[in-house]
Amino acid sequence: MPIAPIAFFVVLSLLTVATPLSAQLKKVRFSTTGISISELPFKVAQLKGFWREEGLDVEAILIRGAVGMQALLGSSVDYTSASGSTIAAAVRGLPVKLVFISSSKPQFELVSQPQIKSVQELKGKIVGISSRGGSNDLMMQIILQKNGLAPNKDVTTLIVGAQEETVIALRTGRIAAALLTPPRNFILQRDGYNRLAYSGDYMPTFANGGIGVTDEKIKTNPAEVLAFVKATIKALQYSMKNRAEMVKIMPGYLGIKDATMIEQLYDLYLARQSTDGSVDDPWMRGAIEFTQKTLGGAVKEVPPSQVFDFSFVQKAAR
Q1: CB atoms within 10 A of CB 208
Q2: Fold match between 26-105+206-317 and 109-201?
Q3: Residues contacting residue 277 through CB under 8 Å, at least 6 positions apart
Q4: Average of pLDDT values for 40-55?
Q5: How confident is the model over 204-231, as pLDDT tens digits?
Q6: C-beta separation of 48 from 96 below 8 A
Q7: How would residue 203 be classed by pLDDT, with cut points 50, 70 and 90?
Q8: What is the CATH T-level fold of the domain 26-105+206-317, as seen in this structure?
Q9: Could you read off the pLDDT of 105-160 as tens digits, one per residue?
Q10: 109-201 domain in CATH 3.40.190.10?
Q11: What is the 3-state secondary structure (H, E, C) of the chain?
Q12: If pLDDT is split at 50, 70 and 90, which confidence band does 65 have?
């Protein structure tokens, strides 16, 4: 009866080969801010195995906004996609850098109740914001001011919370308008709500879906940072070149079954993505200036090198 021992030996051999290979993968923790089209490359990197190809076993954890930055600074995670919080922390002098940008344009669309047809018609109304003094608030102020309305005088701003809470506030009539990100704006437009403005027409330098990392990680483990960035760039490029595959991935990721809306979202995605994961010097300076305004402190010269490090993107390209 030699067959059973031989089969056992074959299985044992496969296990002894597989175990070292699995052990070679480096476990890293990555906090993502939410489900959005700007973070699609991270989902693609996970689904298509690009991170694993670079030797990384990435655990993606959903952590909202600034809490992701706290997790990064506290070493609870290795990387964060909270690009706005990363830029803000670096501008304040904290030891972090943004090393990759998925989307170099803001995603916010100003969406209103069906009866409101223009920004000017918001006079005397209440608009929703996520928090006081943050990027969402400042973006709203810029749009209102450039349309001849004084924030908190002509228009009242009300803190309603995150995007999901904002949609509820709009649907229940608590607010007249709010800044929303895809796919929420498309869903509301389908239901009769109006798109009044695109934030990128007012403030083009705004990061979404980046990779934030500590200076300590860059210093002590640059090979890991390069591997993480390189794999994510692969995913970014794959997502922009494979429409047929992306329209299969997006419904499950975004929770949308409407095929027409998926096609619209993919077109929007292509229009707003960074082409290679980096941006130029004027963009960086514009993002720093905008962030300084949200922080409300004294505006001093902050060099881009204090906030951004695209050397890993450049190495990955080579």
Answers
A1: 24
A2: yes
A3: 100, 101, 102, 229, 232, 233, 236, 310, 313, 316
A4: 97
A5: 888 888 999 999 999 999 999 999 999 9
A6: no
A7: confident
A8: D-Maltodextrin-Binding Protein; domain 2 (3.40.190)
A9: 888 999 999 999 999 999 999 999 987 777 788 889 999 999 999 998 999 999 99
A10: yes
A11: CCHHHHHHHHHHHHHHHHHHHHHCCEEEEEEECCCCHHHHHHHHHHHCCHHHHCCEEEEEEECCHHHHHHHHHCCCCCEECCHHHHHHHHHCCCCEEEEEEEECCCCCEEEECCCCCCHHHHCCCEEEECCCCCHHHHHHHHHHHCCCCCECCCEEEEECCCHHHHHHHHHCCCCCEEEECCCHHHHHHHCCCEEEEEHHHCCCCCCEEEEEEEHHHHHHCHHHHHHHHHHHHHHHHHHHHCHHHHHHHHHHHHCCCCHHHHHHHHHHHHHHECCCCCCCHHHHHHHHHHHHHHHCCCCCCCCHHHHECCHHHHHHHC
A12: low
Chain mean pLDDT for the chain: 89
Structure tokens at 213: 């990392």
